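lol ok so funny story. i was supposed to be doing the assay writeup but got distracted and ended up predicting the structure for this chain instead. priorities right. anyway since i did it might as well share w the group, maybe its usefull for someone
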Amino acid sequence: MAKDTINIVTSFNPKGWETYAKKMIESANKFLSDDLHLTAYYHDFDDKTIKQFPKSKNITFKNLNKVPSMLKYRDEMKLHDGTEGKRMPYNWRLDAIKWCHKVYALTDFSFKLVEEGMQMGWVVWLDADIILKKPITKKDLLGIIPLGSELVHLGRKDVDYSETSFMAFNLNNVPPLDLLLDMRGIYDSHEVLSYREWHDGFIFERLFNLYGAHGLKKHNLTPKVRGLDAFNNSPLSDYFEHFKGNRKDLLSDKTTPDVVGPKRYKQLADVIRHYKFSRILETGTWNGGRAIEMALAAFDNVDKVYYKGYDLFEDADEFTDRTELNTKPHNLYKAVEKRLNEFKKYVKEKMNKEFDFDLVKGDTKKTLTEQKDFDIAYLDGGHSFETVKHDYNMCKQLPVVVFDDYFTKDEGGKEVADEHKGTNKIFDKLDKKYRRKVFHSSDPVRGGGITHLAIVIHNDSLASLPDSLNHVPIIVKPKDCMPKDYIKNNIKNNVKSIDKWLIKGRPHGETMIIVSGGPSFLEYKDYLKTTNHKIMCVKHSLPMLLKEGITPWGCNILDPRPIEGTSTHGIVRKDLFKDIPEETIFFVSTMTDISVVKHLQKKKANIIGWNAYSDAIIEKTNEKNKVVIDKDLGVPENTVLLTGGTCAAMRAISVSHTLGFRNFKLYGFDCSVPEPKDKKEKDDSGRDKYLFVTTNKKKFWTTGELLAMAQDCEKLFERQDIDIHMEMYGEGTLVSELWKTKGREQHPNYEDTISNNS
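and the output, tada:
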C-alpha cells in the first residue's frame, strides 16, 4: 500500500440507509475513481436489507455489529441515550449511544490497517449524508488534503468544536494514530461520560487541541467559515454535498410523512369551509399535506380550487433553519410537485373536480410580492420576525390571513423564548379596525407553551366566524375521588369476587339508549317506556327510571366510593341501589368500591365485571405507548381496558361499544343544575361547590364533577374518527349547547345526502 493511498470510511443504520445513505452509496459507485475505496460500516440491519447492498469493486460493506467492543459499549451505556433512560427530554449532546458508531467504525478500520503492517496512507471519514456530485480521483482529493499534514479538519469560528462530517488522518505518521487510539479508549473506558458533551465532535476537538499543542501537524480547510455548515463552505463542496441535519430528507424523492396530531389545523379547514374559499395561498408548503387538507375543505363547497405554495424546498440549509427557527426536515420541490399532481389526478378522477397549483421555490422575502387575487393566505413559512412581517405585508390586501404559531403560556406557566414570537409581535400590533382572533388550542410546544392559529379578517363584508371557532372548550383537570391505593384494593378484591366478565362483541345495528342522571330525561319518559331499544343507566338514574315504571336493560357502575356515603347529588348511595331488578344487568367496573359490589351480590344482582383504564390499574413504563397492567392486582394481561371519560355515563358508551353497539341515543347528559339557593356552598374539600359557566352566550350553573363530564362530552362530540352515531336529547342544558356547537347533528345522514344530490 502506497503512502498516498486514500481509504474513505462511513457508517449508517437502517433508517439512515433508507433516508440518505443509499444515495451516498449510489453516488460513490457512480463517481469514485478506481484509485479510491470506500468502506461502509452498517449496524443493526436484517439479512434481507443487507442483500440489497450493491456490488461494487471500490465499495466494501462491513458489519459493525461484529465489532465486540462496540456491542459491549452499547450494552453498558444503554441508559445514556440522550434521555438518561427516559428521565429527561432528548438531548443529542448527551447521547453516548448514537455517536459511538462513527468512533468504532473509524477506529476499527484504522486499527486493522495497522495489523496488516503496511504503509497505511490516508483514512478519510465522510458522514453517510454526504453525496458525490461529480467524478473524483485520488489526485483530486490530494489537491484538497495537503501531503505534509497529519490531520485535516473543518474548523468553525462560531462553535467550539470542528465539524466532524469530514476528517482526514495521515496514518503514515504516529500522532494521528495515537489520537485515534485515545479516542477509542475514551469510549471503551466510559471516560466519555466525564466530558461536558458526549458526542464525537466534542471528544475529537479536545484530543485534537491536546495533540496540536504537542506538535500535531493539522490543516484547517475552513479557517474563515462562520456558522455551522463548514463542509458546504469548504473546497470539498466542489465534489461533495453535505445534507446536514434537516436537509437529510432532501435525499429522498418522496415527501416526508405528514404530522399527525395537531388539532388546530381542523380550525383552518373550518375557516375555508365557512367562507367557501377557493383560491388559497400558503407560505411554508413543506410536504404538500396542508395544501391537500385545505383543498379538500374547499371542495365541500366549490368545484374548482387553485393553490399557490411558497417554500425554500432544497434551497434550505442549516443557516436558514437557524434564522427561520425551523426544526422540520425539508422536501424536494419535485417530490412535492409529484404529490400534488397525484392529488390533482385523484380529484379529477374520483371527485370530478379541478385542482390546479403552482409552487414557488426560494426565500419569500424575495419571491413573495403583493397579493390581491386570493381568498385566504395561510402563513406558516419562515418564523423570524422579519419574514412574518414581510409575508403579512404582502398578503394584507387579501380578505383573510391566518397565521400559524401564535404562542401562549401553558398551564404550568411555561412559554417559548421571545425569538420564536414573530407571529405574536406582528399580530398583536395589527390595526384594531380589523376583526382578529386567536383560536383556542391545546397543541403543546416541546419545552413548554401552547401554539395557536390566529386570524385577521380584512374584508368587512365577510360574515362572522362560525360558532365552532368562537367557542372555547371547557378545560378541567379531574382527579380520582379516592386515593390510588384504595382503588387498587377495590380492583384486587373485585377481580376475585366477580364471576362473569365483559367480552368484546361483534358490531351490529342495534341502538343503545344511555340515560345519565340529569333530570332532563324525564321529559322523554313516555318514549322510554315504549321503546324497544335497550336502555343503559347509571346509579343516579336507576331509581328515577324505576319510579317511572322503566326497567333498564343495564346499569353501569364506576364509583370507587363506599356505599354508605352521600353522593355528589346529596343522595345516600345505598338508597340508589334499594331496588335491584332481576332483568337488569349491572356492568361493574373493578374500581367500584367493594361495599357496592357486596351489596349487589347480596341482592343477587346479575353482575358483569369490566376494567377501567386508570392510573391505578397500570404500571409506569419507559416504553412509549405501552400499557402494562399492575400484576399485583390479579387482572389478566389480555384484559380490555375501557377508556371514555371520568364518569359512569361516558364509560357506558365504551361498555356498549365493546358489546358491538354503534348507534346511541343519549338522555340526561345535562351537566348543569338549577340555580342554587346557596351559591357559596362549599364541597368536602372546602372549594366552591357550584360553578358558573357560559357557552354560546348562555349561562349555566354546574359543579366540578359535572363540568368534567361536560368536558368529556365535548371531546367526544368533536371526534369524527369513531365508528359511532350519536343523537343527543334534552334542551336548556349545558351539554345540549355543546352539542349544538360540536355535535354531529351538523352532519346530515346518508339519506339526506342522497336526496339533496338527486
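The domain at 6-243 is CATH 3.90.550.10 (Spore Coat Polysaccharide Biosynthesis Protein SpsA; Chain A). The mean pLDDT is 86.
back to the writeup now i swear
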